[in-house]
Structure prediction request, 388 residues.
Amino acid sequence: MMKKLLFFLVFSAISQLIYAGSWNQKSSLGGVGRHRSCGLSIANKGYIGTGHVNGTGVDISYKDWWEFDPASNSWTQKADFPAFTHGAVTFSTDTKGYVGGGSGLGGEFYAYDPTTNLWTGIPLCPLLVSDSQGFGVQNKGYVYLGNQLAEFDPALNSWSMKPNAPISFGTWSCSFGNNSSGFIKSGGLFYEFKPSQNIWVQRASFPGVMSNGSSAFSIYDKGYVTCGYVGGLSTVTDEVWEFNPGNNGWTRVQDFPGTKRRFPVAFAIHNVGYFGTGTNGINFNDFWEYDPLKAASGLDELAMNSVEMTLYPNPALNNLSIELNGISEDIFEELSVKIFSSDGREVYTENFGGLLTQVDRTNLPKGVYFVTLIYQGRKIESKKLILL
Prediction:
C-alpha cells in the first residue's frame, strides 16, 4: 500500500521557475528624480541616495540619503553622504551599509550606521570602483573593477584582494549576493564567485535583451535582474529575469510595469525586492515593490478572493491531503497542484477533481519542498513543505 502524506500549507518562501510574481507601486523617493544613484538595505529598512541629473547639459550630483520603511511605506531623509557623487558602489552587512567610489571619490568608502545616523570612513579600497553594484555575502562586502575583486571584512576593518575573474566586467554591470555566493552580470556573461572556495564559476549566459545599466537583487537565494539599456543608451527595456542557482537556469518573470529605464537602483528587504529611480532621458523618483509569492496582476482578484488551501500536518511523515475552500467548483478542472524540490525541479503534479485531493508520497524523499497552486497555467500561491 502506497504511503501518503498530509500537510498544512502556511505562507512561506517559494523558489519556482516559471510563474511571475507581482509588482506594486510604493511611495516615491522623497528626493528629486535621478539616475546612477545607489541603494542598499540594512535589516528591515532600505536606503537610496547620491546620483545625478545631466539632461540639460549641466551635471548636477547629489549627496542626500533617504531611508525607506516598508512597514509605513514612507521615506525619511537621513544624514547626507559625505560627498557629492554618482555611480557610487554599495554593499551592506546585517548592521551597516557601505558606499564609496563613483564620480566624486577615489578609493574612499564610508560606513553608514542607521542606529546613530552617522557616516564613518573606512580604509581606502584598493580599487577605484564606479558604476557597478557591489554585493555582500555572509557579512563581508565585495566590489569589482575589470577582472579584479576586493573583499572588505568589517570584523578586521580591512580590504583584501581575491582571485581575478576569468573575464573583465564592463562598466554599468550589475551584481547580487545570496547566502553563499556573489553573482555578476556583464552583457550576456554571468559569473559566480564562491567566497568559501575562493573560486570563480561561469554560469548560464544571460538570455535577456539588456546589455547593461540594469540593477539586481536577491530573494530566496535567487537573483533578479531588472530593466537596463539595449545596445546603446537610447533603447531601454522593462524586462525582468530570475536566475535560479539550483538549476543554473534563467526565467523571464513579470515585466516591470512602470516606465522602461536604465540605471535604476534595486535591493531586497526580507525577501521582497525594491526598485526605483533611473532614467530614460527623464529622471525618475518612483519606487516599486516586487514580491515573487504574489500572483501576477491578472490573477490578483482570484488569489485574494478567498482561495484557501489547507494541508496538514507540516512537517509531515505519512499521509497528505490538500483541501480547498472559498472557490467555485466550476473551475476545478482548471486547477492543479505542483510540488517543487528545493533546487527548483518539478517533482509532482496533479489536477484537482474536488475540494479535497491527496498526494502520493512514494517518490518524495524527506526534505524541503515548495507546493504551488496553479490556475489556468499561472501561479496563485506557493508554500513551504517539510517532509520527514
The helical segments are 300-304.
